[in-house]
Amino acid sequence: MGGCFSKPKPVELKIEVVLPEKERGKEELLAGGKGSPRTYQGNGTARHFHADERLPAPHPYPSAQDCVEAAVCHVKDLENGQMREVELGWGKVLLVKDNGEFHALGHKCPHYGAPLVKGVLSRGRVRCPWHGACFNISTGDLEDFPGLDSLHKFQVKIEKEKVYVRASKQALQLQRRTKVMAKCISPSAGHSSSTNVLIVGAGAAGLVCAETLRQEGFSDRIVLCTLDRHLPYDRPKLSKSLDAQPEQLALRPKEFFRAYGIEVLTEAQVVTVDVRNKKVVFKDGFKLEYSKLLLAPGSSPKTLSCKGKEVENVFTIRTPEDANRVVRLARGRNAVVVGAGFLGMEVAAYLTEKAHSVSVVELEETPFRRFLGERVGRALMKMFENNRVKFYMQTEVSELRAQEGKLKEVVLKSSKVVRADVCVVGIGAVPATGFLRQSSINLDSRGFIPVNKMMQTNVPGVFAAGDAVTFPLAWRNNRKVNIPHWQMAHAQGRVAAQNMLAQEAEISTVPYLWTAMFGKSLRYAGYGEGFDDVIIQGDLEELKFVAFYTKGDEVIAVASMNYDPIVSKVAEVLASGRAIRKREVELFVLHSKTGDMSWLTGKGS
Predict the structure, then answer these.
(1) In a designed cystine with 249, which of 233, 289, 363, 439 is the match (CB 3.0 to 4.6 A)?
(2) What is the DSSP letter of 81?
(3) Phi-psi region of 171 (alpha: psi -120 to 50; beta: other; left: phi over 0)
(4) pLDDT, tens digit (0-9, with 9 covering 90-100), for 532-561
């Protein structure tokens, strides 16, 4: 953890932590800690896995010359509940004072590098201002998502009214810590037709499930299978950065999966699940038996059903290859995007600097209307129009016309003909659960897999998570919802893994998502379906605002641009179980032209 005050005691546990390559330089992380034997009940027999089965590391403790120590402030410089970035020579540290105690942690969120000092401190954790990830201030551990890694925790001592922080130089430069994980000790790994845990789908839910099992000491076989040809990658980046290459998007490098014995089967399609015999069959005929199963197949993009739908150069963005081809074809040419939701608008924004022209076709009156409401949607639409994007609203595509097989024109129901060399379709998605129709796993009328708070399906030992599930949303009276967001998939993958290990965890996270267009970010927390009013504070034209979505007397969601950290603040209040009343927000807007948010830290309303 980077602590180096006393002479290290003999260490029982040697740990090697394998780090993703991207954004991390070549530093290796040194970590040390103690592991207790864990028990896992697999196939009816308890097995104990001990610390010495973990991965060896060259130096479990940093030596004195690897450490840096400095006085960073006077004890009275920080009030309770305050955070400050302090310089330690080799890097910065986040210093936190909470309940009279000082804590020192990594200062950047490991997800996308947000400065945590601008985040929200509450209930013993700090929440990232950008995307809502939460870190325990006592341990540095990641407690809510997105992202995979935790923060380093540094040693603090008080001497003569001064606060000293001591840290390993490498930890300071690295700014992230991968939790200690077990490795696989199953003798059959890699070459047998049975696995202890099978995970169908290698998005955020599948990967977090596998990592959580290893973090919890599970060392039996784990197989992760995916339709993709790539190892798990950062899918939300696809539509925001269409040029990104697979290796830039990878969530973990190849060595990580090898080190921790997480087997990944790429381009592997499951065609049937036989729950009675606990067996899945793949398209190529390969059969695999499992003891526990996680279904996280995600969704399949909807396609156009109009005349000419088979012409070339019409895409849904599902893989890095799709995204890369769209950029290549759009360069200096005419691009049409069908659908003004998150994916469509992100693609349109990205293509404005590459394409000759960008047009957006949408059935609603304004972009994002159902999600963000009329006024916010209109303000965002204006930003796009200022960036040369042409909108065709309240219409849809009636025909795609080709020349020599390749797309040339998009014909709209309004009879308008739009020139197009490439077309991206972003009109929503359906759960990719067709392969479950013949199984006894329940699907609802729309094809979603209903689960309980523990991510269990109707079949014992079969769990489901991610975009393909409906689950009870705790803070909306356990209403059964589908929330196809990246952060939610992480949280559900973790809960599924905990319950595979009989830990009785329940999903309770507050939904959090974001979008980025023209270098501007919009953040959103909550679940706003069915909102009946929107209260806006700030300036919509300047795109510096916060919008509160209310239903009856209650705030059910919040969105903001250039108004950090209000979305994280609201998420933290909702996560604490406190309701935010509409009248509180109305008073805030009435009296607070300064943007003061102290009312939100509310000690009860």
Answers:
(1) 233
(2) T
(3) alpha
(4) 999 999 999 999 999 999 999 999 999 999
